[in-house]
Amino acid sequence: MADVADKAGVSRALVSIVFRNQPGASQETRERVLRVADEIGYRPDSAARLLARGRSRTLGVMFTVHQTFQTDLIEGIYPEAERLGYDVLLSAAVQGRSEAKAVEALLGHRCEALILLGPDADAGYLDALGQRAVTVSVSRRVPRARVDFVHSAESKGVRQAMDHLVELGHRRIVHIDGGRGPGSAERRRSYRAAMRRHGLESEIRVIPGEHTEQSGIETGRLLLAERDRGLPLPTAVLAGNDRCAMGLLMPLARAGVEVPRDLSVVGYDDSHLSHLMPIGLTTVRQDAVLMAEHAVRFAVERLENPQLEPREAVLDPKLVVRGTSGPPPGEAS
Amino acid sequence: MADVADKAGVSRALVSIVFRNQPGASQETRERVLRVADEIGYRPDSAARLLARGRSRTLGVMFTVHQTFQTDLIEGIYPEAERLGYDVLLSAAVQGRSEAKAVEALLGHRCEALILLGPDADAGYLDALGQRAVTVSVSRRVPRARVDFVHSAESKGVRQAMDHLVELGHRRIVHIDGGRGPGSAERRRSYRAAMRRHGLESEIRVIPGEHTEQSGIETGRLLLAERDRGLPLPTAVLAGNDRCAMGLLMPLARAGVEVPRDLSVVGYDDSHLSHLMPIGLTTVRQDAVLMAEHAVRFAVERLENPQLEPREAVLDPKLVVRGTSGPPPGEAS
DNA sequence: TACTCGCACTAGAGCGCGCTAGTAGAGCGC
DNA sequence: GCGCTCTACTAGCGCGCTCTAGTGCGAGTA
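The joint structure predicted for all components is written out below.
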C-alpha cells in the first residue's frame, strides 16, 4: 500500500480512500491510484482491513459437496451477497470433515455470519452457534435455536406430489425417507398425512433411506428382492430427494422395470439434474435462487441491525410433472 | 489479550506464548493464563494473528460449482491439506462470477497458494498469478506459465477408450469435444490420432460441445435430426466428459435409440455419478483423490521451499467398462 | 568470587490497514 | 482585504497479535 502511495505520489490514506470507494478523492487521482495498484499487483489485505475496521463483511457458507441442490443454492448466494456488499467464503463438510470443523474454519476466518445449507447438527449446537454469530439455517428447521431459518413448505410439496399420484390412480405408494437429511422429518410426516387423507392408511410404508443415490439404489434392490419373493411392487415411490430418486431408477432399469409404465417415481428438490435424466424426473421444485436470496438477506439484515430477532421464511414449492410419473399398471392412461 | 495479561499478572507476550503452545512458559503460568482467559472469554483473534504472523497457512481452491469431477477433487483436497497442517478456503466460479473474481476473493483472504480446478483463464493471466502466489492448475495444462500442474494423461485415456470401441467393431465413432473445458484440446487431438492410427481417418468427426449435460442433449438432438434426414447415426460416441455423456443419453432414450445396442457411449472422468446411471457409464477414470493429493503437496512443498520450480504430475487414467458400450449394430456380440 | 548457561519472562517494534483530526488551497460573498 | 466553506489530501494513532532482542535470576562450574 505504501508502495502504491509512493508511486502514485499520494499518501497511504488516499489510497485507502480510493480502495474503499469513499468520497474524498478526485476522479483523476482515483484512476491513477488504481492504475498504479494494478501495475504493482497490489490487493488490499483483508486481514489487516478486518483488524483495523473490526468488521469483515464476509458471509461463511457451510455446505455438503455432492448435494446438487446445495450447489444450486450457492449459485444464488453469490450474486445476492455481492449486491449487498458482502464477501462469501465456502467451507465444505465432506467425509472425514464434520460440519463443526467446516464451521470452525469459517469462524476462524472471521466470517460475521454463517449460512448453513442443510445442517445436520443438533439444535443445541446450532443454538450455541447462533449466540456466537448471526446464523441462518437453510432447509432445516431448528425450533428454539437462535438462528434464522429458510425452507420451503414441505407439507405443501408432498401434498401436491401425493395428490398427483393418487389422481393418476395410485394406491400402493411408498416413501423412501431422507433419514436425518434436511426436510426429511416434515416430508415423512406429510406423506403419512396424505396417505391417511386419501384413505390409504393401510398402505402406508416408509422405507428408511438417505438423500443419496446409493440409498435409492439400495431401496431399488430391496423392492426387487421383495418382488422376486412374490410380493407386489409398489406402483409409485415418493423419494426423499432427487438424488435418491435417480439412484432408485438404476436397478429398476436393469431389472427391466419400466418407468413410469410399471412404476412411477417422484423426486424432491428439482435440482438442476432432474430434467437431464432420460425421461425427466417428476419432482417437487424448490426455488433455490429465492431461498438463497432470503438466506443472504436475513444474515445481512441481522448483521446490520443486531437487535433484530431471527426470522423464518417459508417458500412454496411446486410440483413439476415430467416423465417418471404416470398411471399405475393395469389402468388405461 | 491485555486484560488476560493484567489479570494473570504477566505480559501480553507471555499470553501469546501460552496460546501458541510454545516453549518459554512454566506449566504453572500456563495454567493460570488459560484459566483467566477462559473466565474472561478471551479467544485469539485470527485476523490479528494472521496479520502479525505474515503466514496464513491457508490454501485457496477455485472451482466450478456443478462440475461433479471437481467436487470429487475437493473431497480429496481437504484431508491432505489437514494432514499437512493447512487450512482450505473454497471459492466458486459461477454464472456471473468469473474465475478472476473467485481468485481475487481467495487472494484477498490471504491464501498463500491457489489450487485452480480446471481453470479456463488464458496462459498470460495464469502466469501472472503464478508470479504472485504459488499456483497449481489441475486438469489444465498451461505451458510456460509459472504454475504447478496436475492432470492425467489424456492421450492414454482416450487411446484406451478408442481401442476398446474399435475392438468391439466400431468404425463410425464421433467425438463431442469439450470446447474450452479442461483437457479438451488434448482429448480432441488424441481422438483424431487414434482414428488415424486405426485407419479411420475418413470417419473422423468432432462435434463442438462443452462439458455440460446441455451440450450432450443438444448433440443428441443434432444426431437424431440427421438420422431423420436419412443420414446414418454414428455407432459410437466419445463424449467430452461424463456430464456430456449423460446429457446425450436423454434424447437418445426418448427417441427409442437403445444404448448400447444401437449406439455406444463413452464418457470421461468417472465422476461419482457415472456408476449411478441406469446402466452404468463406460468411462475413463481419473483418480480424483490422487490428483487432489498431488495438487496439495505441490502447493505446500513450494510454499515451504520457495526456490523449488513448478512441477508437473501426469497420472495414468484407466478405462472403466460398464454398460453403455457394446458391439455396433449388425455385429453379433 | 566470577563466570557462564538456561529458563521464565518482558519491552517494544512491527504486520497492513481504517479512521479521526487536521491542513492547504481554491472559490465565494461582502 | 477578511472570514467562510468546500474539496482534496495527509499525519499518525491504534486494531490485537507475533516476534526479536533483550533482562533478571538461580544453578552449575572453575
